[in-house]
Amino acid sequence: MSHSLISRRTLLKTSAAGAAFGAAGLPFSLRPARAASATIGFIYVGPKDDYGYNQAHAEGAKVLKGMSGVTVVEEENVPESVDVQKTMESMINLDDATLVFPTSFGYFDPHMLAMCKKFPDVQFRHCGGLWHKDKHPANAGSYFGYIAMGQYLNGVVAGHATKSKKIGFVAAKPIPQVLNNVNSFLLGARSVDPSITCQVIFTGEWSLAVKEAEATNALVDQGADVITCHVDGPKVVVQTAANRGAFVCGYHASQAPLAPEKYLTGAEWNWATVYEMYAKHLLAGEPLPNFTRGGLADGFVKMSPLGPGVSDAGRKQFEATLAEIKKGGYAVIKGPLKDNKGKEIAAAGKAFPETAIELESTGFLVEGVQGSTS
Amino acid sequence: MENDIGLWGVPLAVLGGAIRVSTPFIFVSLGEAITERSGRINLGLEGTLVFGAMAAYAVAVETGSPWLGVLAAMVAGSGFGLLHGWICSFPRVNDIAVGIALMLFGMGLAFFFGKPYIQPSAPNLPAIPLGDWSSIPQVRAALNVNALFVIGAALALFLWWAFKNTKLGLIVRVVGDSADSARAMGLSPTTVRLFATAAGSALAAVGGAYLSLYYPGSWNERISSGQGLMAVALVIFARWNPLGCFAAALLFGGAGALGPALQSVGVTQGYYLFYAAPYILTLVIMIATSSPGRQLAGAPGELSITK
């Protein structure tokens, strides 16, 4: 693989421009200034109709396509490697993109940060990264939603639906966002019945269909009867769990059409809110915020409509908790709380609401979760 | 807790995993065994597998019949095989290089045509409930055996017998061991290899159909994650013996299920290591059975890697 920072497309573009320059004999700007119009690039790690992570982002991008003055360029299936740098370069050089959203977790460091240094005039906003003003360039930034609250609500519904008092979680990698979701799912269920436990299985990759199916089967074999997940495309997990007769809670986007009878509810992204906000700032020529966070109340995250498997008691507690969360300041991680190795995370009286910055570097699984972060 | 099977979950998951996960390995490795026995290597089977998965899924969605999907995969697969065999019939063409090109071509083509089929749900292939004697739901689930697995097992047995006892088997072996003797017998090595590659590719595509139509049972662009390539390696591991291919595929499927199963019973440390289990196993067996003094036992003499 080439280690050159000049991609093939850059080279083609430069030589084409050179040829045009020679032919016309007139100087022209490579990137003409256009008022109130902008090209925005979206990069996805998988297919944009995967019933999951990428589909959620693509649905947000679709809303921007309807805004006047905005041109959207997209590329799917871009690996978290030097490939994403080449994609960003070609979006900037060929399509004149002035704002780029590399949406996958692994794009941030070092790939997006390298591009930030190379193109200081272009804005980069990453989904899920932890941008810090002392550590990262000013044209970089990150946005994310407090979707763990959605997993907490999933847990509330799961707590009412489980008969075996054991629920299951198919997780990709033990990173803070995933661990927060696992913890919230269990704590939501424990708000219904404190004897519930949650088994987590890490597959090690964001998208590994056969392993996700094996993990789901293993969870059901061990008696888990409500399953949720945090992988890029929940389709396989949802279908496998429903086939085995377990209830499922969705993630990223609504998977209700895949298992209408077994789908309880799901934590969905609503990225249109975030992308519209950025696009409006960009068109108005205003600086873009570097650090954007929001939750259920801000419309960054939404819940799927409750399915037919949700009991009346479950529905009632779900709605009450949702209303409580929307008021703001709701804390899932609150003392007294231990992790599953017995270490104290929060003393009595200490609470971490969704906005707590500590939660963005979570490295523990709470008591009652069977699993390990390494 | 009722139906709590505890640590029994691990052997059960390995057994279930061996049955569920191994089928694509069985078909691809049997297909490659036919091709390699005729003296040619087709590394393009990963591409054929992915294209077969896509073609089967698309046809099953459109017609509502999963078996028509399997048939479509076979047709598409043999098309890829014929292409490989035809290109390799020209002088001084390297079959390995052509295989790699066709692998990338097959995957690219599958992604292109498969785009509209990521979302729809296709009807699944039927399973045979061999576990109905048991009252334990986990055992019943593990022994839910797909028809393709049974066909794969029968095919392994048939090929093992046919290589030894039929005229066709003899022809393939002669062409694979010595092209000169084959010509002396009045056989055309090019034609035999063309059809052996086509048959091998058709089987590999059926492996893909199993992935998209049964387990995990949906089409997306990462459905295979290298299983076609691993299966090609399995053939060498199995010493070109169809029964060995079947056993190696079962071993791989079972070892692949070990990681999730161990986590589900509480052995949660070091799962990345457990996920490497199938590959470590391969390495160990390869090293244990290799010898610097002799050629790989059972290797066809005309293969470009052993020549």
UniProtKB/TrEMBL annotation, chain A:
Signal peptide residue numbers: 1-19
UniProt keyword Transmembrane, yes or no: no
GO cellular component entries: plasma membrane
Keywords: Signal
Domain ABC transporter substrate-binding protein PnrA-like: 39-307
UniProt keyword Signal, yes or no: yes
PROSITE patterns, A to Z: TAT
Listed InterPro entries: ABC-Purine-Binding (IPR052910), PnrA-like (IPR003760), TAT_signal (IPR006311)
Domain of life: Bacteria
Annotated Pfam families: Bmp
Protein name, entry field: BMP family ABC transporter substrate-binding protein
Taxonomy of the source species: Bacteria, Pseudomonadati, Pseudomonadota, Alphaproteobacteria, Hyphomicrobiales
Automatic annotation (TrEMBL), chain B:
Subcellular location: Cell membrane
Transmembrane segments: 6-31, 43-61, 67-89, 96-114, 141-163, 192-211, 231-258, 270-288
One GO cellular component, as annotated: plasma membrane
Any Pfam family matching the protein: BPD_transp_2
Main location: membrane
Keyword Isomerase annotated: no
Protein keywords: Cell membrane, Membrane, Transmembrane, Transmembrane helix
Molecular function GO terms recorded: transmembrane transporter activity
Superkingdom to which the source organism belongs: Bacteria
Its membrane topology: Multi-pass membrane protein
The protein's name: ABC transporter permease
Organism this protein belongs to: Methylopila turkensis
